């Protein structure tokens, strides 16, 4: 499968990027909404290991179904390319769905609790803005991950069954090693 013709995106910082990247594999993460405690919990594992990710020759692109303005409040400190897709055009193009199972699946509940507690602590100490009560695009988005080659070929993908069902850093590094070259 291929992503088709090159996709031109603009990050929340106004940087133009292309999918695929001509010089490296790209890991595209479809997250939920700006300030999502579950997404933030997961993304922090990527932040902690960003040097390994860069050394593996990977480019990280993170999409949210929120506006650029909301993402500047909640995600501007991420050391990755962050893209707003409030109309969910790319979500539709890649077949990324939403569903109540995002939050109703019992496998996600411990991660929701950890994410909410982490976010609450950061809000209380003034290091994070309060997540939205009614997020733009809704609360039931499902995550998805795609590894895209320099030629636009989709090398691997994962469609989440619940809000915390996504690739770990180890998964991404392993897939990149298998698909390099």
How many separate helices? 7
Strand order of the largest sheet: 5-4-3-6-7
Q: How much of the polypeptide forms β-strand, as a percent range?
A: 15-25%
Main beta sheet: 5 strands, mixed
What structural class do the secondary elements suggest?
alpha/beta
Radius of gyration over all CA atoms, rounded = 15 Å
CATH superfamily: Glutaredoxin
Order of helices and strands: EEEHHEHEHHHEEH
Q: Shape from CA axes?
A: globular
Mean pLDDT: 93
Kindly state the number of beta strands. Answer: 7
CATH level 1 class label? Alpha Beta
Notes on the structure:
- The chain has helices spanning 37-48, 50-55, 68-74, 89-93, 101-104, 109-124, 169-179, and strands spanning 7-10, 16-19, 25-30, 58-64, 81-84, 144-148, 154-159.
- It is of the alpha/beta class.
- It has a 5-stranded mixed beta sheet with strand order 5-4-3-6-7.
- A hairpin with a 5-residue loop joins strand 6 and strand 7.
- Helix 1 crosses helix 6.
- The chain starts with 6 loop residues before the first strand and ends with a helix.
- The mean pLDDT is 93.
